Amino acid sequence: MWLIDLSFWIAAAALILVARRRQDGSVRKGLRVSADYLLIMMPRMVLALGMAGFAAELIPSELVSRWLGGASGFQGIMIASVVGAAVPAGGIVAFPIALAIYKVGVGVPQLIAFLTSWAVFAIHRVLAFEIPFLGVHFVTLRLAASILLPPLSGLIAEVLVQVMPL
Amino acid sequence: MADVPDPAPDGGGKAGRSGAAISLRRAFGRSFFAFAGVAVVLGAACYGLKGPTAFDRALTDGMQMMIYIVPRIVGAMLVAAFIQVLVPREIVARLIGEKSGFRGLIIATLAGTFTPGGPLTSFPIVVALHAAGANTGALIAYLSAWAMIGFQRMLIWEFPFMGPHFTALHLAASIALPVIAGVIANRLPIRIAVPHIGGR
């Protein structure tokens, strides 16, 4: 685990070196954007982790493992796809839910179907951005083209789990 | 609504005091307090329904996880921020605009994956690409890739929360999906009519 964290710091250091060689203030800009991110995301992370912890206690774990557990198979993937489509908010809500159900025994393919479905349907994003920017026809076309992807991602994950188990 | 932050309005260029004030206001805006409210309600429900032991366990769990993921988040955000600064979005737009067909879909998927920022960044790019005549499937592939496997959301949320193994598996399971969406979209008989706003 620490190796992966370390590789991120090495990647960050390499990017900073690249930015330095440009000599156009990129380093300063990059550090400033990082600080911005940290300032904006950190308080939300703390909240999200709290929500995930409380939600994990509140969610009935027998229900999750029965309907969405690793043994729930294709049926669980379909249920997860429907549930994911109903999450009306960004990562700050979706990932605490994902972490909470992960803690109480959701299967990996089911969780991946959930996340794909959330990314595809994202009601909040469709209403606030996609329809105003791109119009109803675009949204219809995108959803029609994507509606099978959440279960598909779950099935692909099911195969991958056999090949590269967690 | 902060999901993945869009770049600051001033482009993060000036490191003045007013810039810091704007960030602070963005960090503790209305959405922050809405989420804080949800967290408090969940905490109260946990305390009331499951008792103090469960409440303490949830808090301790969260705290431990925080300590564990802070170094990870700082590293991930440095990477995310520097990629954003070093890769101008014009390059992204130019790449998709020029290619068509299956290769166009693959390039659109890559471009969507590496488009930094939130919806205020990605949607204007799609509008501009459409105006420049990019093919519909490529637009769908681009947006799907940004939403499903956008590197910034994966770095900022998924990797710290779910860990490297899950994130890698998720990425592997999803990497072909935007291309599939694009192929299907090109075959569906739905004409799109993009409203003439936001294009500038």
Please state the structural category of chain B: mainly alpha
Query: Beta fraction of the residues of chain A?
Result: under 5%
The number of distinct helices of chain A, counting runs of at least 4 residues, comes to 8
Poorly predicted runs of 5 or more residues of chain A: none
Q: Can you count the beta strands of chain B?
A: 0
Radius of gyration of chain A (CA) equals: 19 Å
Q: Please outline the major beta sheet of chain A.
A: none
Write down the overall mean pLDDT of chain A.
Answer: 90
Strand content of chain B: under 5%
The best one-word shape of chain A is: globular
Measured between the Cα atoms of the first and last residue of chain A, the distance is 13 Å
Mean pLDDT of chain B: 81
Describe this structure in words.
With 166 residues, chain A is mainly α. Chain A is built from eight helices and no strands. The longest helix of chain A has 33 residues. Chain A is globular, with a radius of gyration of 19 Å. In chain B, 76% of the residues lie in helices and 0% in strands. Chain B has nine helices and no strands. By secondary structure, chain B is mostly helical. Chain B is elongated and about 60 Å long. At the A-B interface, helix 1, helix 2, helix 5, helix 6 and helix 7 of A face helix 1, helix 2, helix 5, helix 6 and helix 7 of B.
